[in-house]
Structure formats: structure tokens, C-alpha cells
């Protein structure tokens, strides 16, 4: 996971940091950055151990590569869904799918100087 950062880009970021921070404040900034990276690593390690404690030994058995969303092809998912045999609906589901008739929409109201739109003083 390099996030598209190459050595040249990192070198350029470092050079800009040296120019912006300045040589006298650079050691203190580098120390703060290293402390932040160390804390982030500790946070990730503690999160991983906490997950293992809460999820139990089943967490080690999970194949995380199967759950990676990058492996799914949307075209294959849609094709599988379209060619999948429909499941028969239960009577309870059939009642839910019956739609009520939709009432026709009223035409938009025309406003003029004599017929003003409603005004809400609390909204302004």
C-alpha cells in the first residue's frame, strides 16, 4: 500500500517540508512526526488484538481475501442476479408487494402578486 507514492514524490515532499518548516524547527517536527507514526502503529496493534479478543478464535479462520470488494466484478453480479431462478413468494410477502393505486398529481400552483406563496417566518 504505497498510495502511489514513489521515492521521487517522497523526496519532493521532504524538500518542501524542509523549506516550509525551516532547518531550525525540522528536528522537532521530525520527532513529532515519528511520535505520531508510532502512536498510529500502537493504535492499529491494539485494535487488532482487541478484535481478536472480542471475535474469538473464529477471526483467525476468516479468509479475508474472499471478502475483498475489489475482487467482485459488477457485471458478473448483475448477470448472476438476472439469471437466478426467482424464489416463490410467501403469502405474507405477496401482501407487502401489492401496491396501492397512485393518486394523480395536482398541477403546480401558480403564484402571483395577489396569490402569494406560503411564508414561514421561523425558516428565515
So how many helices? 5
**Terminal residue distance:** 49 Å
Indicate the percent of residues in helices.
Answer: 40-55%
Strand content: under 5%
Largest sheet: none
Can you give the mean pLDDT?
A: 82
Rg (CA only): 30 Å
| Shape type | extended
**Poorly predicted spans:** none
Note down, in words, how this protein is organized:
The protein is mostly helical and 124 residues long. The protein has helices spanning 7-21, 26-55, 58-61, 74-83, 91-97. It has 5 helices and no strands. The longest helix has 30 residues, at 26-55. It is extended and about 70 Å long.
Layout of helices and strands, plus pairs?
Layout: H1 7-21, H2 26-55, H3 58-61, H4 74-83, H5 91-97
Search tags:
mainly alpha, 124 residues, 53% helix
Summarize the structure.
The protein has 124 residues and is mainly alpha-helical. It has helices at residues 7-21, 26-55, 58-61, 74-83, 91-97.
